[in-house]
Model the fold of this input.
Amino acid sequence: MGSLPEGLLVAWYGDDFSGAAAVMEVLAFSGVPAMLFLDVPTLSQLADYPDVRAIGVASTARAWSPEQMARKLPIAFESLLALKPEILHYKICSTLDSSPAVGSIGCAIEIGATLTNASAVPVLVAAPQMRRYQIFGHLFAGFDDEVYRLDRHPVMACHPVTPMKESDVAQHISEQSDLIDASLWSQEDIASNRKLPRSGKIPVMTIDSLDAQSEVAAGRMIWEQRARNPFIVGSQGVEYALVRHWVETNSLPNSTPPDGVGRAHGMVVVSGSVSPTTAKQIAWSRNNGFATIRFDVSTACSENMMLTDEKNRVIKESLAAISAGIDPLICTAEGHDSAGAAQFKRAVETSGKTLAEVNKRIGQALGDILCCILNQSRIRRAVISGGDTSGYATQRLGIFGLSALAPTIPGASLFLAHADGPMDGLELALKGGQMGSPDYFGWIRDGGGLR
Done:
């Protein structure tokens, strides 16, 4: 790869599955061999993929408490650092999903900065290719034909777990940790190697990015400063920026993404997302050949028998649809203001369980449903919709890794699953709730490929 160093270029740890997979697609479709694992890979697993130059691990850290992070992240980060990557990237959502109590980015920064002895931690959340922009420290995100400041975003401002009330990225992160100082360092300070006095806190610098030129600059800064600051926090915008810099410096040739892989002979979709974007995709699918089957999420608030009965009902209806030549789409709701969402909220409030516990049960149940349908049919293509749902559901499939297969929109491509069991070779797409065009599920059914 020209002047790029030998060995592992990037190791990333994703705080959700769909986002972790999105990093892989940026690298793989740009010509950097990359693979995503569902746990830190063993040496024997890595030996089977000797040409890989970037390795990721998908987790459900976005749903963890700080106490869970303190237990799990040091082990994961140390395992990835042992592989000697040039950069260790903690991958977060491009819409900054997090809070002091759930998926704390501040907590992850404390752990990563300590392990790498970084002089500062660059944070790059913006990804212009995905219509995510940071300007003067504030994050903006596209929705439909408009671009909104994050705290006014129609989806993120009313997110059911981590509603975004702050668009200033540094301010949002600093509220999650007493050990972070976002005021002492600027992008120019980092780029010029200027050493500023330490305040006893971890200096964090958020990076503006709104177009190709600023993205190249961000990639150059991250790459050239990696010896002093090897720990990076951000979305797949980190990899977009690195690739732009590598191409700009002729370290990496321009690469053309592969074509689609053709229409599936049957496909299954499971969706735990309440996003309005996903609601539009479900509505499109209902009108274009899918059988939409509602999974009653209130049963996840009840005893195991009720949940088991509901899973069995959904599986039976789905297999009946498949026998009739119709692709099943199993969903929990159609938008955060739908009747199903309201029913679920009431059920959680009266169950005595936390929202995090119930969401985990829902994701696992959808994974069990998907696994059973795939095992009882000949279908070899599936979609899991919803960032947290993707994590919990994918873990139930017995998969250990994913590699890139065919692109669609940035952040929601089609992947090839690697497993020691029957799911080996499954074609799987993982989609965040707010990602994709209205016909996304149809696009995956047709095999992906750029339009």
In short: The chain is about 35% helix and 20% strand. Residues 30 and 65 are 35 Å apart (CA to CA). Residues 268-445 form a domain with the Molybdenum Cofactor Biosythetic Enzyme; Chain A fold (CATH 3.40.980.20).
